[in-house]
Structures are given as C-alpha cells and as structure tokens.
Design brief:
Elements lengths: L4 E5 L5 E7 L2 E5 L16 E2 L4 E3 L12 E3 L5 E3 L2 E6 L4 E4 L6 E3 L7 E7 L4 E8 L11 E4 L7 E6 L6 E6 L16 E3 L7 E6 L5 E8 L17 E3 L7 E6 L5 E8 L14 E3 L2 E5 L5 H5 L9 E4 L5 E2 L11 E6 L2 E10 L11 H11 L7 H7 L9 H11 L7
Parallel strand pairs: 23-27
Antiparallel strand pairs: 1-2, 1-8, 2-3, 3-5, 4-5, 6-7, 7-8, 9-11, 10-11, 11-12, 13-14, 14-15, 16-17, 17-18, 19-20, 20-21, 22-23, 24-25, 24-26, 26-27
Amino acid sequence: MIGSSLKVTYSDNSIKEFEITENSLTIPWIHNSNYYAGGSGPLSYYGDGTLIKIGNDFAVVDSNVGFVDYLGKIIFMGKEAQILSAHKYNVKVIDDAHLKSAATCLNKAVYYYGCACGAVGTETFEYGSLSDHSWDDGVVTTAPTCTEEGVRTFTCTVCGETKTEPIAMIDHIFDQQVVSSEYLASAATCTSPATYYYSCSCGEKGTETFEYGSPSGHTFDCKVISDEYLASEATDTSPAIYYYSCVCGEKGTETFEHNLNEVITVTDESPYVVAGNNIQNIQPGTSLDSFLEEFENEETSLRVFKEDGTEITSDTKLVGTGCVLKLFNGDTLVDSKVLVVTGDNSSDGKVTSGDVKKALNHTLGKTTLDGVYKIATDVDQNNKINSGDVKKILNFSLGKITTF
C-alpha cells in the first residue's frame, strides 16, 4: 500500500486523492451541519487539528464515515474509494513541462521522464541534436586600415569556440603634410610659397594642397627690353641700359647694356605673343623643337629651363607654363622670357583634370592662382578667371576641343 494513493469521491461528488505513506492515510477534516467526518468516537489529530487518522488497514471508528466492506473495498461516506498504483516514470515526453535544460553546442536537450498520468518524474534522458554556437557581438582584434582589411573575432558564450570575419578597408584619410618632391604640386616662386598635396599615412597622394615655406624671393636675372626697365637710352656712343628684372616682372637695381639685336624675337608668322617678360599664346602639347622654330634667333643660342633651373634638352619634351626661355651670347645671358602655355597651370605642358581642378578652385575661392599661372588659366584673356575659362579647360582635357 505504501507509495499508492487513495482516490476518494465525497457525497458532493467532489474527488480528492490522498497519498498513503507508512501504512497510514490522511484526509482533510471534513464537517458540515450534519456530521463530522471521522465519526463519534475518539479521533487522532495531526498538526493543527485539521487532519484525522483512519486506523490501521483502513478500519474506521464510525461506519458513517468509512469502512472496509466484506468484499475488501474501502467505502468512504457511502462512496467506493479507488486505490491507485504508484507512478511509473517511464514515458519520454518532449514538451516544455518536462524540459530540464535546453540543448547547447556542448550538450543535447535534457527532459524528465513522465508518468502515463501526466506526472513529471526526476530521472532524465537526452533528446535531439546539439544546437548551434551562441556567438557574442564580437570584438575588433585587428583594426582595418586603408591598405588592409581588419578582423572581427566572435566567441561562443557557451563553449568558448571562436570565429572571425573580415572588416572592410577604410577610406584614405588625406591629412598628412609631407614635404617631399613626390607630393610637390608647385614649386615656390618669388611671390608664392611651394604647394604640396596632402597625403594619407599609407603614402597615397590626395588632391587637396597646402602651402609650405616662404616665397623663394626675387631673382633679378632677366633681361627684359621694355620701357619700364629702361635706365638710360642708347646714344651714339653707348648702348641702352636696362634694369635686370625678376620672372614675376619686379624690377631690380642692377643694370645691363643691351644692343637692339640681342633680343628674343619671334618670327612674323609665329602665333606667339611677347608680352613684357612673358611669351604667351603657346598651345598645350608643344615640344621643345617645335617651340624653338618660332624664333628668329639662332636655336643654338636659345635654351629652355624649368622653374627649378633644370634645362630641357630633349627635343620631344614639352615646354610648360613657368619655364624660362634664355638667350645666350656665348656663355653670357642676354635676354630671357617666361613661357605661358594656355590652359596649363601645372607646369607640365599639358591640360589635364588637375588643371581643371585648380581653375575651378580658383573661381570658388579655395585657392589662388597668380603670376603666369593666372595668365595661363585666363584662356579667354579677359583678365579674370571665371566659369567660361573652367569650361574651356575641361573641354580641352576631354578632347572636345584641340586648341585654345
């Protein structure tokens, strides 16, 4: 009997089930206006007096309450009481009520065995498969750069397993001011400092520029035959005397003698225009040999130098804005002019997107072009740089026009 239970139906048809332990049965204290369950004889109480004990082998003290009849059945308040067998926890039930622990990446799900009546036992069994890893949000273990991808590492919160995913490279950040020839945008002139392109920490060159240093200062080595530089006119016995000037047009204090036949002179058919200290109207893409053919002077006495003083010696090399044409009498410099190649504000003798950008930035007030670079960018020669000049330079760079 121990481990079984007694299912009792009361006179009001309500049903209660009581566990039988240590060969005893306990039921609630039952009473109404007509009787007390437990009979009229002496009662044995448990605890606070709300329970009674029915005697050994289910004998009772009052037949009005319950008794064992001659067939061995337990009769309680006129109803037969059913003795149920102990629970058998041998049923594998897969539901939330029987779940002890959910599946992880290390262990399968664990469930309690159940009884056929629905009761849940204490013994367990495994069911199903391992679950996927439970990944955390990950941490950046290698930061991305502008040249290499980064790495994000994820860790399983259950087993500690890890996995990685690449992080896309970041954009270049052009915030480095490196003063080096590879980043030189324009050399210093007598009126403006050198400009350099900003670079990235990886070495990539940007498109925006910054100024560095000071203007190079005037160099008064140009012999310009013009009234503005005239110191004294020629006489019957003496040649005219002129002040040396700088490529920017500034007049110096030192003088030189000049004979009229020692002047840089273009041919009558040449499209070039000698304007003061400059030679203008030179088309982009003009090579050295083509350029020198436009002058009456002996080619052997004419030499072209870049802004940095390097001489251009290859006949196929292009002449660019800022280059200096020098006329020599033997080893003596007798005259010089600064070249202005229309549309070329980068000194390379070509018109590219870089020239377009500089022209546009000038019109927007972001940068300032001056000297021969301003003259070169003023392609319509109206003494100002505007959207019309930018458009023409753009069209030339795209091949929509071939001359200015």
